[in-house]
Amino acid sequence: MAEPATDLRDQVVAIIARATLLPVAELRPEARPEDLGIDSLGLVESIFALEESLGIRIPFNAQEPERTAFDTSTIGAIIAGVEALVAARAGSSTA
Amino acid sequence: MRRRVVLTGAGTVNPLGGDVDASFQALTEGRVAIAPLAIAEAQRLSIRIGAAVAGFDPSAHLPPARAAQLDRFAQMAVVAARQALADSGLTPGPWQTTAGAILGTAGGGLATQEAAYRAVYAEGRSRVPPLTVPKLMGNAAPSAVATDLGLWGPSFALASACASSNHALALAVQMVRAGSSPVMLAGGAEAMLGFTGIKAWEALQVLSPTGCRPFGADRDGMVMGEGAAVFVLEDRDHALARGAAVRAEIVGIAMGADAEDLVRPSARGAERTIRAALHDAGLTPDRIALIKAHGTGTQANDQAEAEALHAIWGEAVPAITAPKALHGHLIGAAGAVELLTCLLALQRGIVAPAPQPADPALSLDLVAGAARPADVPICLSLAFAFGGLNAVLALSRG
């Protein structure tokens, strides 16, 4: 069961890399978007790309990013959030 | 005494070339950049020719992340504006606090708009990319130029269809004359050469399936082009004080409306605006050595334009040049890119040719076949738009 999770992490990083035009190697879990030069527009682009590619809906509001349920403070937090949403979708679709 | 306005910088990306020198070379050779369109679904178009900026590579000029934020028309505007600023020799300074960029565009970010419509209507998607609005807005080009060059003054887009660039240049001249800023950038950018752009113009029945032959007896319409040109306009005293090279002086401007018909050109409206530009420049008609015509290649425009010229000059209409025959009609960027034809004549004494001669019935001395060497101290640049909006510039060697 660990394999799909690892694939998903790679997938998330690859999607963010494409959206932000950053090399995959720079998108380490502890990296914060602002330190990578990802501004609010870059974040919105990344969220959009994740939603489109993975078929999920991410609860993110660019107006008030700090008050939304989805944690975008680090790349790792984004990956964890996406994993949870994908898992929830899988749970609901098999229920 | 009125401030004099000179042109100290020029930059362009257009179907004839990626900068001013390449454009001058192509205009001198009379090279035609009109070719079969290489766009998706061209088989669904009845018009399949255009003048594209072939091989334009935004990543050669902009970091990929920046290029991705801009529609094609804005990318080309930034490249042209950078060239213009470099050409002017201006270095960072106080002029930036009042300088702005006024750029004509008729369509704005049409490729972005088309992609968004395709996503929601054709592909059934429920959402479009987040940057759709900031990429498609008409002011994306001047905003990008202001940001790129660090201009804090008035920057905005100006829309008057095919006269947009001439209006932008005329307005910038007025601002420099008024003392609002010693430096202004002005010009235009257009990238309408996509499927929906051609499809819309096709419906109006003004596009030629064969080529652009301004004032020709067998003319059958206009050919769409794309591209950008931007110029640095400067208070002459400011330019001379810093030892700038002056390409030309804009000695007169006029803007007017036919107030007649939405699409049918008016000889009276054109004549009024040309006369107003001559008046603004303090010139009598006989001082004009060359007229850069609007010359779209449609039956209606060229007939009305010829009537306007004869109304002013009688049988002594000066030589005319019609560069749309070479680079097509750049719509909102037309006046700006066609100003290059004026600069070539003023600066190098070369008048760009159209491939075909004019219809003898129009009694016009259209430069055709090969470039004509000519002493051109003063010329006019005409632009007449759908909606009956006209803008005319008078230029001298400065």
Keyphrases for this structure?
A: Non-ribosomal Peptide Synthetase Peptidyl Carrier Protein, Chain A; 3 helices; B: 398 residues; alpha/beta; Peroxisomal Thiolase, Chain A, domain 1; 10-stranded mixed β-sheet; two-stranded antiparallel ribbon; 34% helix; 18% strand; globular
Q: Helical stretch count of chain B?
A: 13
The helix-strand sequence of chain B is EHEEHHEHHHEHEHEHEHEHEHHEEEE
The N- to C-terminal Cα distance of chain A equals: 19 Å
Oligomer: heterodimer
Report mean pLDDT of chain B, rounded to a whole number: 97
Number-wise, the strands of chain B total 14
Largest sheet of chain A: none
- Based on helices, strands and strand pairing, what is the structural class of chain B? alpha/beta
Walk me through this protein's architecture.
The complex is a heterodimer of chains A (95) and B (398). With 95 residues, chain A is an all-alpha fold. Chain A has one domain (2-90): Orthogonal Bundle (Non-ribosomal Peptide Synthetase Peptidyl Carrier Protein, Chain A). Chain A is built from three helices and no strands. Chain A has helices at residues 2-20, 40-54, 75-94. In chain A, helix 1 (2-20) crosses helix 2 and helix 1 packs across helix 3 (75-94). The two termini of chain A are 19 Å apart. In chain A, 23% of the residues are buried. The model of chain A has no long low-confidence stretch (mean pLDDT 87). Chain B is an alpha/beta fold and 398 residues long. Chain B folds into two domains: 5-241, Peroxisomal Thiolase, Chain A, domain 1; 251-396, Thiolase/Chalcone synthase (Peroxisomal Thiolase, Chain A, domain 1, 3-Layer(aba) Sandwich). Chain B is 34% helix and 18% strand. Chain B contains 13 helices and 14 strands. Chain B has helices at residues 20-29, 64-67, 72-88, 110-122, 132-136, 140-149, 164-177, 195-203, 236-241, 267-281, 299-313, 324-327, 334-348; strands at 5-13, 35-36, 49-50, 101-104, 156-158, 183-190, 227-235, 248-257, 290-292, 319-321, 350-351, 372-373, 378-385, 389-396. A ten-stranded mixed sheet of chain B has the order 5-4-6-7-1-8-14-13-9-10, sandwiched between helices. Chain B has a two-stranded antiparallel ribbon with strand order 2-3. In chain B, helix 3 runs parallel beside helix 6. The longest helix of chain B has 17 residues, at 72-88. The two termini of chain B are 17 Å apart. The model of chain B has no long low-confidence stretch (mean pLDDT 97).
